[in-house]
Amino acid sequence: MAGQFKGERLGAVVVAAGRSTRMGGADKTFAKIQGAPLIAHTLRRLAASDAVERIVLVVAADSVGDGEAVVREYGIGKIAAVCAGGARRQDSVYAGLVALGPCRWVAVHDGARPCVAEDVLTRALAAVRYGGAAIAAVPVKDTIKVVGDEQIVTGTPERATLWAAQTPQVFAYQLLRDAHEAATADYTDDAAMVEATGHPVRVFRGSYDNLKVTTPEDLAIASQLLGAQAG
User: Other CB atoms closer than 10 Å to residue 24's CB: what's the count?
Assistant: First the structure.
């Protein structure tokens, strides 16, 4: 299957340099799920994908050695580098882009999304080929309320227009790098940074199983999902 993507595959920047503030002090990057660190599951999914050519892992500065150890211990292929991130998420992504080096397409993926499936990655590559900027997302299931001062509801957006953003977010490499270098504000989402340049960003169908682990409870859910996918 790799032949169908020859010369057109994704470079991937996996961002895992956050402070895990909602994990009760534990570093979720290296929390064990199904007998392996969370980040090992994420990297193995990407490395196994025919849509992905090479990977850079971005971790906190004091965790670079731990990241390299995971790559060695679990025999994860396609790793071009393990590098230190920065103070902000966008600083970490930019460090990953520099370490990855020029390529045609780049995917930015949360290290804390270990359940990303091959079909999502295949759709990501197809989507970025079409317009140069696309993000995984799923339609929201709940009614969303806009809430103002004193917890007063100020609006109810039409649910049909609302999608929950996920990763991977995929871009033409130079488009994303230029957006980072031109950014003058703080962004927690690469798509928003590219949107600010005026370039349109499309959505492609993600997966409700593509969970981002942010709390201890999420570790148990991710473990169940990984077990079900393996079965």
Answer: 9
Nearest residue to 170 (alpha-carbon basis) of 117, 113, 121: 121
* CATH superfamily, region 2-230: Spore Coat Polysaccharide Biosynthesis Protein SpsA; Chain A (3.90.550.10)
Question: Burial, 133: exposed, middle or buried (Cβ in 10 Å; 0-12, 13-18, 19+)?
Answer: buried
Q: Where are the beta strands (DSSP E) in the chain?
A: 10-16, 32-33, 36-37, 52-59, 79-84, 105-110, 133-139, 146-147, 153-155, 163-172, 202-205
Residue 199: pLDDT band by 50, 70, 90 thresholds? very high
pLDDT of 186 strictly over 90? yes
Q: What is the pTM of this model?
A: 0.93
pLDDT at 24: 53
Domain residue spans of the chain: 2-230
